Amino acid sequence: TKNYEYILTSKPAEGVALITLNRPKALNALSTPLFTELNEALAELDADDSVGAFVLTGSGRAFAAGADIKEMKDKTYNEVYQNRFLEDWGKLTSVRKPIIAAVNGFALGGGCELALMCDIILAAPTATFGQPEINLGVIPGGGGTQRLARAIGKSRTMEITLTGRNFSAAEAAAWGMVSRVVPEGEGKVVEEAVAMAQTIASKGRLAVQAGKDAVNAAYEQTLREGLNTERRLFHGLFATQDQKEGMAAFAEKRKAVWKHA
Ligand code: CAA
C-alpha cells in the first residue's frame, strides 16, 4: 500500500492489515497529520476486499503518548471549537472491520483513548495506560471519560481521570479493559494480535460485521434497543449465502467455505 510519513502499513498475514504508528521519537504523539494519515489508511483498507481485520500498534517505547501537546499548547478556545478539534478521531469508530489494538509501552491520554476506540485490546506486559490530561490543566477529549467509564466503571475512571495516575497492563486486565496481557517477548503482542485478526478474517465477513455492530450496540443503546438490534442483525444474516453454507457445512460435517456474501 501507500507510503505514509507517520504510519506504516503492511499485510503480515492472510486477511490482515497491520498499521503501525511511526513517530517513535515523539512516542507516537497523535498529531493532526498523523491522525489524518491513520484515517486515510483505515478508509482505504476498510474498502480493500483482501482485508478482513486490522491490527493497530505503536513503535518504539509507546503505543501513543497522547495528543500532540506541542501542537495543542497555543491553540485558543475559538480555534479548537470552530475547527472541532479531535472530532475526526471518531472516524475510526465507523470502520466496518474489527480493529485489534496491540498495546506496547505508553498508551496515555489520546493513546489510551485510541486503544479504547478499537474493538479488542491486547496488552504487552510493558503497556502503561493513563489519562494524565489533568496534569496539563485539561481533561480527556478523545472519549476517555466515556469509554473508560464503560470499560472499567465509575470509581476507577474518576480515580484515573482526577489523579492522572497511570495504570499497568495487569490492572487493565484485572479491570476487564483488555482481553489479556500477552507474555513477554519483543513483538509478541503484535504476533498474537495478528493471529487473532487472521482468525477473524477467516470467518464470513458479513457475520463478522454484524457481530461487531451488535456488540457496539451494547455501548450505545438501551438493553431493549440493543436486543432488537441484535435480533434484526441475526435475522438479516439468513439472507446471506454464508448462513446457508455455514449451517449446511455443519450438517454435512465439513468445513464451511465462506463467500462473504
Ligand atoms: N505530545 C508531544 N510530544 C510528546 C508527547 C506528547 N503527548 N509525549 C512525549 N512526547 C515527546 C517528548 O516531548 C520528547 O520529545 P523531545 O525528545 O523532543 O524532548 C519525546 O517525546 C520523548 O519523551 P520524553 O523525553 O518525555 O520521554 P520519558 O521517557 O522521559 O517520558 C512520558 C515518557 C512519561 C510518556 C512523557 O513523555 C509524557 O508524560 N508524555 C505526555 C503524556 C501526556 O500527557 N499525554 C496526554 C496528552 S493530552 C491528550 O492526549 C488530550 C486528549 O485527551 C486527546
Automatic annotation (TrEMBL):
Gene3D superfamilies, per the entry: 2-enoyl-CoA Hydratase, Chain A, domain 1, Lyase 2-enoyl-coa Hydratase, Chain A, domain 2
BP term (GO), one: fatty acid beta-oxidation
Top-level taxonomic group: Eukaryota
Molecular-function GO terms, alphabetical: enoyl-CoA hydratase activity
GO cellular component: mitochondrion
UniProt keyword terms in alphabetical order: Fatty acid metabolism, Lipid metabolism, Lyase
Top enzyme category: lyase
E.C. no: 4.2.1.17
Keyword Nucleotide-binding among UniProt keywords: no
A Pfam match: ECH_1
InterPro entries, alphabetized: ClpP/crotonase-like_dom_sf, Enoyl-CoA_hyd/isom_CS, Enoyl-CoA_hydra/iso, Enoyl-CoA_hydra_C
SUPFAM superfamilies tied to this protein: ClpP/crotonase (SSF52096)
Similarity section: Belongs to the enoyl-CoA hydratase/isomerase family.
Protein name: Probable enoyl-CoA hydratase, mitochondrial
Species of provenance: Phanerochaete sordida
